[in-house]
Amino acid sequence: MSVAKVLDRETWAERPDVWKGEFEGGIYGANVSVVFYTTDEIGGGPKLHKHPYPEVFIVRQGRALITVGTDEIEATAGQIVFAPADVPHKFSNLGPGRLETTDLHVAGAFSTEWLKE
Hints:
Order of helices and strands: HEEEEEEEEEE
Number of domains: 1
Distance between the termini: 51 Å
Radius of gyration: 14 Å
């Protein structure tokens, strides 16, 4: 009897040609949810928000300005940045070119509080 779960790309991806989409792992028994994020827009990215759980940002491609609390980190491809639970954070594409991230939410479902800048 197989216990593995496999999600095909068309299950989570918004488009077949872009690394963008998401899934919540709770329905599969996993305490993790994932956002696959892509933007070509310089300055593009999610606005200030927080979660009741930690979030881990993996920069796959490009350069990002990641703000966690009062820290501003210029992260590049291959770097990983951690945001603790309940700490406001955001990120934006520094360019040039595309920014791709994989963002791990340490929870089975998303819970986001959007904040004023």
